[in-house]
Amino acid sequence: MAEHRATIDIDAAPETVFQFLVTDAGMTSWMGQWASLDPVPGGQFAVDIAGYPARGMFLEVDPPRRVTLSWGFAGNESLPPGSSMVSFELTPISAGTRVEVVHTDLPEDLVGGHMDGWSHFLARLRRAATGEHLPPDSWKPGP
Predict the structure, then answer these.
(1) Nearest to 120 by CA among 102, 141, 103
(2) CA 3, CA 25: separation in Å to the nearest integer?
(3) What share of the chain is helix, strand, coil (3-state, %, to 5)?
(4) Separation between Cα atoms, residue 21 and residue 33, nearest integer Å
(5) CA dihedral of residues 10, 118, 90, 3 (deg, nearest 10)
(6) Distance, C-alpha 10 to centroid of its chain
(7) What is the DSSP letter of 136?
(8) What is the pLDDT of residues 72-87, one digit of tens each?
(9) Per-residue pLDDT, 90
(10) Cβ(97)–Cβ(12) under 8 Å?
């Protein structure tokens, strides 16, 4: 199993960025077309992304510093719901917030697709968290 790390700086306070990780409207403003989130330990994490049902549960919710959740896709044998873990670490910086995403327990053959996805979606998170209203997302996973 592999791990992917990505970091992005956002010109918004950690409290603002945090809301984009734990609310249905916040999440779908930058990733996915539908979300049902219950941001408490053991609560549901469900987001439909480009036709793929990402499913898991919240493992840690520490406002406005950290969100950790299990991650996988319904109907996917390689990465079933809850089989990997995603952690968002929010650190205050002079320009706003540094967000580090660590995605662990990824099957080796799925790392490239997740790297592409996180790169795309973190750029959208930066834009959404600074107040930009984004058009519907048209990202599709690569081959």
Answers:
(1) 141
(2) 28
(3) 25, 40, 35
(4) 14
(5) -150
(6) 15
(7) P
(8) 999 999 999 999 999 9
(9) 98
(10) yes
What per-residue confidence (pLDDT) applies to 142?
Answer: 67
Is 131's pLDDT higher than 70? Answer: yes
Confidence of residue 1 (pLDDT cuts 50, 70, 90): confident
Which residue is listed with tokens 């058009």? 135
Which amino acid is present at 136? P
State CA 110 to chain mean position distance.
Answer: 16
Characterize 103-136 residue by residue with b for buried, 16 or more Cβ atoms within 10 angstroms of its Cβ, and e for exposed: bebbeeebeeebbebbebbbebbbebbeeeeeee
pTM of this prediction? 0.94
Q: Domain 2-129, what fold?
A: Alpha-D-Glucose-1,6-Bisphosphate; Chain A, domain 4 (3.30.530)
What are 105's strand-pairing partners?
none
Contacts of 143 (CB under 8 A, 6+ apart): none
Domain boundary assignment for the chain: 2-129
pLDDT at 62 over 80: yes
